[in-house]
Amino acid sequence: MTQTTSARSGLTRRGFLKSTGATAGLAAIAGLAGCAPAKEGGAESDLAETGVVEEQVFRGVCRPNCFGFCHMNVHVRDGHVVKTSRRDYVSDPHYSRICQRGLSHVHRINDPERLKYPLRRVEGTERGAGEWERISWDEAISEVAAKIKEYQGQYGPQALATMSISGNYGQLTNAMYNRLFSFLDACSISADSDMASYYGGWRFNGGINECNEISDVLNSKTIMVYGANITDAQVHHWHFIKEAQQNGTKLIVVDPIYTQLASKADIWVPIRPGADTALFMGIMNIVVERGAVDVAFMTKSTVGPFLVRSDTGKYLRLSDIDPSSAKADEALAEEAGEEAPADPCMVLENGELVSCDDATAPDLDAEYNFDGVTCRTAYALLRDEVAKFPVSRVAEMTQLTEETIEELADYCIAGSVSHLLGYGNTAYGNGVQVCISGMTMAALTGNMCKPGSTFGNSYPVYTGTNYAFSSPQPKNTPGVGILSLPEVMKTGQRIGEDFPIKMLFIWSANPYNTMCHTNALINDVWPNLDYVVTVDTQMTDTACYSDLVLPCGQHFEQVDICTDGPTWNLHYNEKCAEPPYEAKRDSDIARLLAQELGYGEYFQMTDEEAIKEILETEDGVARGLTIDALKEQGDLRYDVADPHVSWPDGTGFATPTGRLEFYQEDPQVRSPREKVPSPERYEAERLPHWFPPFEAWSENDIMKKYPLQLMSERPRYRVHSQYYNVAMLREIDPEPIVKINPQDAKARGIEDGSYVDCYNDRGHAVAKAVYSEAMRPGVMVYPKGWQRSQHKAGGWSELLTNEFDEYGVNSNFMDVVCEVRPWNEGGDE
Ligand SMILES: Nc1nc2c(c(=O)[nH]1)N[C@H]1C(S)=C(S)[C@@H](COP(=O)(O)OP(=O)(O)OC[C@H]3O[C@@H](n4cnc5c(=O)[nH]c(N)nc54)[C@H](O)[C@@H]3O)O[C@H]1N2
Ligand SMILES: Nc1nc2c(c(=O)[nH]1)N[C@H]1C(S)=C(S)[C@@H](COP(=O)(O)OP(=O)(O)OC[C@H]3O[C@@H](n4cnc5c(=O)[nH]c(N)nc54)[C@H](O)[C@@H]3O)O[C@H]1N2
Ligand code: SF4
Ligand SMILES: [Mo]
User: Fold this and answer.
1) What is the mean pLDDT of residues 28-46?
2) Biggest distance spanned by C-alpha atoms of the chain
3) Among 72, 534, 604, 709, which one has the highest count of C-beta atoms within 10 angstroms of its own C-beta?
4) Cα end-to-end distance, the chain, whole Å
5) Across-strand partners of 162?
6) C-alpha–C-alpha distance, residues 61 and 573, integer Å
7) Which residues contact 490 (CB under 8 A, 6 or more apart)?
8) Crossing angle of helices 13-20/26-33, nearest 10°?
9) How far away, in angstroms, is 795 Cα from ligand 2 center?
10) For atom 3 of ligand 3, which residue has the closest CA?
């Protein structure tokens, strides 16, 4: 594997440094990358003075939040990254990939605008005015530590809030900060993104993002994709789908937009936005009407046969039938010092009440009168709920034809379907139910828990690391979600209790750009913060509006491991070079702060030692997941079953009943906030239920004022706001655009290629209009992630709502309405 060559670059060391310096064009670096000799890792080059530049190749793991975790060769000459190229996964070569962003890292790493020194906002200037003074690390660290002590001393631990989202999915980077902030018992601000599907899945099956591995689509007869833009947003998944299609698998894409993926589909289903739950309910109704329910699966793996009491909504349990025996069991357990046995749910078998543990063939669809209380099976309740969705009504709601809906039901009933759920259709006020009703539909047809049959998003996360490393202290300070933060900052209260936050420490996140309702952050959050620190490689929107900016290393400049990914693998990232100028590794920034704050003794370990402590749990080591093995191989598969199939026995779900819970006796919110669910809502949440979107639904009054829906798209040329300043990508994708159906544009006097102002009551964004027949009339789509400074005015996140549903507490990026008008630069807005 090791290749060692050297080549004459024609540049002396001094010449090279000059050409890569702050003022040099990027072409110089790219040019050098063209003559790429290679040596694997290791020895420093000492040949540069003679004009011979030796190249070293390190293993990098690209890890912005694109779900990719592509392995790459990081080519380094004289301590400078000159190129990145694809590197194979050792244990899973079919995941070896790279994309245009991965190939462009050299531009990011050597960006002349990369942050070089700690910068403090010049006293007396406004945040965002762009006036900075360079300060030393000593000054920066002591200032941050002093502020933390001052605010926490005066207001309590929550006075320090921290926020990290998805800039770097490295374990060490995040664990070191989290460890420090655990000692400080700081308040952590969560992003509330992607939570409808995360929470919906957790509620239904107890897993987090749990479904079959993406390579398992090769075992399916049909792949049905709902609200995922796989060719652009999950690029490493696409080739599996294409391969399956080439083997005869049908690809059905349910998306209101004619996306790249839709263009590759055998059937494109242009559903009305926000209507997926109605579609799933309608399909379930057809399945029931046709008598095509998979009774065996529903009986064995779901709560279907459990009797539900009509008086309480709870399952009928053994303790209801025989309180004395249940009490006796409890007492016996207590005497023996054991946990009380579960109180089994009751089912009907041959007309008799039996504990679910003892039944062999319980009735799925039954009713029983217990002590004057009607009890019906959970399945019977579901059947009644879906009966409200006859195909004619669903056709109206979804704006699909009845034939299309029947045809989709045919595919579901035929079985062997990979149902792939994205994050687009769940980014609505009604998103949780999209996930829950979809999973119920898959269960009803037995399309789960077998090779080729699944429902969900394949994004596995290894959970076997040492959690205590990043949380050495019990957490007493509650967290706050970004959607509630404006309210918390405005009132100084969280759920009725005083909760003053004074300082925000941000790393790996650009909330001023990526989080909803920027003007709520601008007006309610930022002015109420006395001190904001951002650690980044770039002067992002968030960094711009901070009081102190700390420059950090880029992904490849720090050793790290990753435990997420498109597959069941752990990944090792070697350090390829030192961070340039005065930038420091995140782990070192955490160490310096810890030292200054009196926690230095807990941060004495090296990065390698810290990684070992994080990775090598007893269970991990027993499975061979050691740092040495990971370093040696670069990637390690932690699930030997390949492809991974979730719950292949159809049992063992981590729900309270151990079964798939399409009926919940006590639905719990994901995260308690000031919005408390009403009793009606609580009742409705028990079963799959149709709720309309918050805004983007024509029956909603707001659409009279703002008749267009505004959706975002994951751009190929950025991951969120990352790669925004890469010259090579900006050549292809130079400025913010918004795609609009020509019909909508012409009705407003908007010409193709002209600038337009998209606006609603919350804010606005100016972008170039691009006519596109791929847009559904009434819907506009913008590629997300431009920094505010790259817009002519405004920014996309200004238009987003921070309304949330009390169960999922999720950001509704797609459930947004607006109007659009031509924009005259310098004219009236
Ligand atoms: N290049 C790139 N890749 C990325 C990212 C990035 O920023 N850039 N971001 C990453 C992250 S963090 C995430 S969460 C994922 C998201 O990955 P995806 O879920 O695949 O992407 P989205 O763009 O959120 O939405 C997918 C699709 O949902 C459709 N859609 C919108 N409303 C509806 C609806 O009501 N019903 C249906 N059926 N479809 C609807 C949209 O038209 C869109 O095509 O992508 C990841 N990948
Ligand atoms: N309109 C709209 N907005 C959305 C979405 C949408 O669909 N539509 N999707 C949302 C979703 S699903 C997500 S996940 C969020 C993502 O939101 P963010 O995580 O805020 O998005 P990024 O732009 O990736 O920001 C990460 C920042 O981390 C920095 N960074 C990278 N590497 C490192 C490092 O090693 N150390 C440190 N300290 N910093 C580093 C990057 O330079 C970047 O500025 O965006 C959300 N925003
Ligand atoms: S940006 Fe994502 S898809 Fe592209 S190389 Fe990096 S990890 Fe892979
Ligand atoms: Mo995301």
Assistant:
1) 40
2) 95
3) 534
4) 60
5) 188, 505
6) 5
7) 524, 528
8) 130
9) 15
10) 68
Beta-sheet strand order (sheet of 367-370): 307-309, 373-377, 367-370
Residue 37's pLDDT is what?
40
Distance 120 CA to ligand 2 centre (A): 23
Ligand 1 site residues (CB inside 6 A) read 65-67, 194, 226-229, 232-234, 254-257, 259, 271, 273-274, 276, 422-425, 711, 713-716, 718-720, 785, 814
Distance CA 218, CA 223 (A): 9
Report in angstroms the alpha-carbon separations of 680 from 35, 467, 667, 685: 68, 38, 12, 9
The conformation of residue 159, written as its DSSP 8-state character, comes to G
Considering every ligand atom shown, identify the ligand nearest to the alpha carbon of residue 438 and give its number.
Answer: 1
Q: Which of 22, 489, 506, 449 is nearest to 212 (CA)?
A: 449
3-state secondary structure 609-650: HHHHHHHCCHHHHHCCCCHHHHHHHCEEECCCCCCCCCCCCC
pLDDT tens digit sequence for 495-554:
999 999 999 999 999 999 999 999 999 999 999 999 999 999 999 999 999 999 999 999
Whether 394 and 193 have beta carbons less than 8 Å apart is answered as no
> How many A from CA of 803 to the centre of ligand 2?
20
Phi, psi dihedral angles at 730 (to 5 degrees):
-70, -20
pTM above the 0.85 mark? yes
Other CB atoms within 10 A of residue 113 CB: 10
d(CA 267, CA 2): 47
User: Do the beta carbons of residue 297 and residue 448 sit within 8 Å?
Assistant: yes
Q: Which residues pair with 500 in a beta bridge?
A: none
Q: Calculate ∠ Cα 168-173-178, nearest 5°.
A: 115
- C-alpha 402/C-alpha 444 separation (Å) is 20
Q: Which residues lie closer than 8 Å to 111 by C-beta, 6 or more apart?
A: 26, 537, 538, 725, 726
Q: Using CA atoms, how far apart are residues 266 and 256, in angstroms rounded to an integer?
A: 16
Nearest to 135 by CA among 122, 118, 115: 118
Q: Which residues are near ligand 2 (CB < 6 Å)?
A: 64-65, 165-168, 173, 193-194, 423, 507-511, 514, 535-538, 540, 552, 555, 586, 712, 719-722, 784, 796-797, 800, 813
Residues 562, 638 contacting (CB under 8 angstroms) = no
Instruction: Tell me which residue has its CA closest to atom 5 in ligand 3.
Output: 102
Ligand whose nearest atom lies closest to the CA of 560? 2
Residues less than 5 Å from ion ligand 4, measured at CB:
193-194
811 to 193, 210, 221, 427, 431: CA distances (angstroms): 5, 21, 34, 6, 10
pLDDT per residue as tens digits for the range 429-482: 999 999 999 999 999 999 999 999 999 998 899 999 999 999 999 999 999 999
**Which letter does DSSP use for residue 340 in this model?**
P
**What is the SS3 assignment for 587?**
helix
Place of tokens 């990637």: 635
Kindly compute the dihedral angle of the four CA atoms of residues 567, 571, 577, 582, in this order, to the nearest 10 degrees: 80
- pLDDT digit string (tens) for 137-146? 999 999 999 9
Tokens of 828: 């009236």
